[in-house]
Queue: 3 jobs
Job 1
Amino acid sequence: MKKKMMRAVGVVPHKKEVALLEHAAPEITQPTQIRVQTLDVGICGTDREICTFVYGAPPAGSDYLVLGHEALGKVTHAGPKVKGIAVGDLVVPSVRRPCPDPDCRPCRADRQDFCATWKFNERGINQHHGYMTEYFVDDQKNFTVVPKELRKFAVLAEPLTIAEKGLSQVWQMQARLPWACAKPGLPKGTGLRAVVLGAGPIGILGAMTCVLNGFDTYVYSRSPKPNPKAELVESFGAKYFSTTDTTPAQLAEKVGNIDLVYEAIGVADVSFGVMQVLGLNGVFVFTGIPAPEGHITIEGNQLMRNLVLKNQVIIGTVNADKAAFQAAIRDLGEFKKRWPKALAQVITARHPITDYRDLLVGKSSGIKHVIAFK
Ligand SMILES: NC(=O)c1ccc[n+]([C@@H]2O[C@H](COP(=O)([O-])OP(=O)(O)OC[C@H]3O[C@@H](n4cnc5c(N)ncnc54)[C@H](OP(=O)(O)O)[C@@H]3O)[C@@H](O)[C@H]2O)c1
Ligand SMILES: [Zn+2]
Ligand SMILES: [Zn+2]
């Protein structure tokens, strides 16, 4: 029987092409799988990077890779052994799938975000087709159900998981400090100060998470004020400073003891510059992924002295586990209640699939662009 075909956006690496493709509609093949109709797919720097062919690989046997890893969909079919997800539910899929190594303890414990072999694959990124197509199928364990009232925003869940996992790691790190930071009933970050580096989608969603967690939150990014991103972050209670007119030392003077730096720019020299002003007992979370080549000079002696004498922690984090997806959905609900206008502004525009080329290889602008399939 001839397979039903769907439209999909993907890359054809051997032709160096970004194209609208014909892709076979997937069917459920396992009793625990669900079939999902795609509603929204977010575009991010990773997709744009794959379209420059420095990164990303098709699945074995395919000469193309369907893009898209930030998605929201609606369940249209559920296998006979699916529990807790029903036809009609809104769902957000995760991205990374475990490696096959029986000795990979993180993957065998469903924590492929910590995969110990680096042989995992990622939907829409590496060796596994993504969600920039009309329907997709996956095991139910790779989905988180979304309340219907988050229909407009849940496409932001995946990029928000980076902050959720990052912050969960921070609280685990800070469990080393044997005293409670906040008064009972107040968010854990109350009385603490967070600096978020960058005002892209990862930085803005990170800053919202910090404000929600009670931190006095400062966003430190390139563009000078006034600019729309600065206005957006100040509308939900963070303060904005630009690297063009405020040095890290001046920033630290304004902030006080910097308890947390959440880095979301992917630029090493700026990040290590800010690390020099990380406060006593502070944690520095790296999320940015700079290009591997190139060298920078850092103040190694000063940084090492600070790390030791100020009891500091540096961690890197790559998204994300199931708990982070659940936290992201919960916090999107909170953001919507508290800052509906700001949350809506994180999504710059929704586009038809035919805009794919402009979005993926055109000049980048705004914050988060979304391809709306429905
Ligand atoms: N760890 C993970 O799992 C994960 C997942 C996804 C993405 N990421 C990484 O997270 C980082 C941020 O992603 P994004 O999508 O938010 O990026 P983005 O849209 O490119 O935003 C980057 C932000 O950093 C600012 N910036 C860039 N260069 C700067 C500099 N030299 N000095 C000061 N500010 C600078 C930009 O300022 P302007 O506003 O002035 O342009 C922008 O606000 C990227 O490196 C990405 O690779 C990590
Ligand atoms: Zn992304
Ligand atoms: Zn693994």
Job 2
Amino acid sequence: MPVYFEFAELPCRQHFVCDRLRATLSTDACGDRWKAAGVATANARWITCKNCRIGARHAGAINANPSPFRAVKICARCHLTASRLIAKHLCISCYNRQREQVVGKNAKGTRPVKLAPLHRRSISYVTGGTLKSMTVERSLDAMELIVAVLRDEACSVQFGWQAQPGARALQQIWETGG
Ligand SMILES: [Zn+2]
């Protein structure tokens, strides 16, 4: 926790010494920097403030997603940063490999072999006090969905694993007292 103080000439504005920036900042300026750093198009000079919990608190975002993936243009499948994401999800290379698998041939006209089969997957998670789920029609693995959620959600995320339908029915019986 930083130590807060006021300047006589700036009453009612809390200041503190920021360790990351090695500078004295007002809490307002700190929160503004944190907000500016949290968007995908953020200027590189804001990078120090990205994912800073103190900045998040000063911006009033107590429950902000602290993941380093947050608002980064990262491909959910290969985890590389991309200049642009197709459908806000995949890099151009992964999108092209997927397309080749869907149509059954690559640019050379031969059968694609590089990409493992893609399957429909869902993931459930809690964020901002709400239960959400995400389904990707063609995904490589569960990690692809986890990376996408961490990248795209503004609030911190807790993942849950959806039980088999049989186990869910059993749980409902317990919860309702039989
Ligand atoms: Zn990719």
Job 3
Amino acid sequence: MIELKGITKTYFLGGQRVEALSSVDLRIGKGEFVSIMGPSGSGKSTLMNIIGCLDRPTSGAYTLNGIRVEEMDDDGLAAVRNRNIGFVFQSFNLLAKQTALENVELPLLYAGVEGAARMAAEALREVGLENRMGHRPNELSGGQKQRVAIARAIVMQPPIILCDEPTGNLDSRTGAEVMELFRDLHGKGSTLVVVTHDNEIAAHSGRVITIKDGRVLSEA
Ligand SMILES: Nc1ncnc2c1ncn2[C@@H]1O[C@H](COP(=O)(O)OP(=O)(O)OP(=O)(O)O)[C@@H](O)[C@H]1O
Ligand SMILES: [Mg+2]
């Protein structure tokens, strides 16, 4: 489902060259639950951005569901992303002025799907927020905000869900609730890739990929 071959990402900033990823080879199969661990600056977010089609590699080949992603233009990438990938970030990335329901509706509206309000409400119900649909992000707790973000990630029923430190801003109990939701999603067949420093999450995943200095160190 996800296949990276010789993926390199080089940033040039103020005359300085940073090789964030160096010839990364990685395969992630349908229905896997993988965690990615490694020190700060090791390239985890860079890798997630490439897997998630938010960014293109400098070199190497990326095939997603049979699609050669590295050859696509921006519109093509956006379309692949919208259909295949749900994102959950550490800082939630919700729109502050929109209600929970409106935030979850966004990917559906972008895709031109009919019945957006009903589907968004159903996704919020799935994450246990049926009684918070009209709340804006500043009227929700951290764990509730992350659940809204998870509802937004799953509302298009994407085959792949990518999470970049989803419990990084949550206390351990709230983090455990979010972890439960991930286990449910995995149980329903989603492919989950989670960047995390959280040993609980790593322990529940099927495979831990460790990266350091832009290279895959080990797969346990
Ligand atoms: N847009 C950018 N321009 C220049 N350098 C960048 C850019 N994004 C990331 N880098 C550099 O690439 C390297 C990898 O960064 P990345 O964000 O992938 O690390 P990370 O493993 O996610 O770290 P953390 O655990 O702190 O989130 C770092 O050295 C970083 O400074
Ligand atoms: Mg990061």
